[in-house]
Design brief:
seven-stranded mixed sheet, about 190 residues, alpha/beta, about 30% strand, globular, about 30% helix
Length: about 190
């Protein structure tokens, strides 16, 4: 059983993440994406960002954790949700944008590359991606979860193989310069 499929560890995660959301990321996204555009959130977790995205876009939430999907469906039975793995994105649907907030950092470079390749196929043309990561070098493991850190250069190098990078910006989530987001188009 994975970390995000265990009710107890998911509750711990929700408590740990309280007070943090993608408000800053959504504000940036609104400058680049037309209101009402379709957006897929990868790794929606408890759905905080999904709810914000839904205020401006036709938001679809996805997660590989059935627990998170079921939990959010109990909160909003009309929500558009997909049980989806962020690497292979097995869906026939297409979206104007794909968004994630500190989700793809769990992927190895090979998995991230496979995900980006598949994201390009799932996007409408033109399409937009926005993903955030922790800043740093190397790989750590916490509670059985892998964290692959990125620098501006490393994420630009990986993403530019499949997309035209619009911007890579370092920002503060918890501490100054601890996070970055990449914004790119097909």
């Amino acid at each position: 059983m994975s970390f995000y499929d265990d009710k107890e560890t998911v509750q711990q995660y929700i408590k740990m993440a309280e007070g943090y959301d993608g408000r800053e990321l959504v504000a940036v996204l609104r400058k680049h994406l037309q209101e009402g555009a379709s957006i897929l959130e990868l790794g929606m977790g408890p759905g905080i960002d999904l709810k914000m995205l839904g205020n401006y876009f036709l938001a679809t939430g996805s997660d590989n954790s059935k627990y998170f999907i079921d939990r959010y469906r109990d909160i909003d039975s009309k929500a558009d949700l997909i049980h989806l793995d962020a690497i292979n994105l097995q869906t026939e649907r297409h979206f104007d944008c794909i968004y994630s907030n500190k989700v793809l950092h769990h992927l190895t470079e090979a998995e991230l590359t496979a995900s980006l390749c598949r994201q390009k196929e799932v996007l409408s043309s033109p399409g937009l991606i926005m993903h955030s990561f922790w800043v740093g070098d190397g790989v750590d493991e916490h509670h059985g979860l892998r964290f692959v850190y990125q620098t501006e250069e490393s994420i630009r190098s990986i993403v530019s193989k499949y997309f035209s990078v619009v911007d890579v910006v370092v920002y503060k989530e918890m501490e100054e310069g601890d996070s970055l987001y990449v914004l790119a188009t097909t």
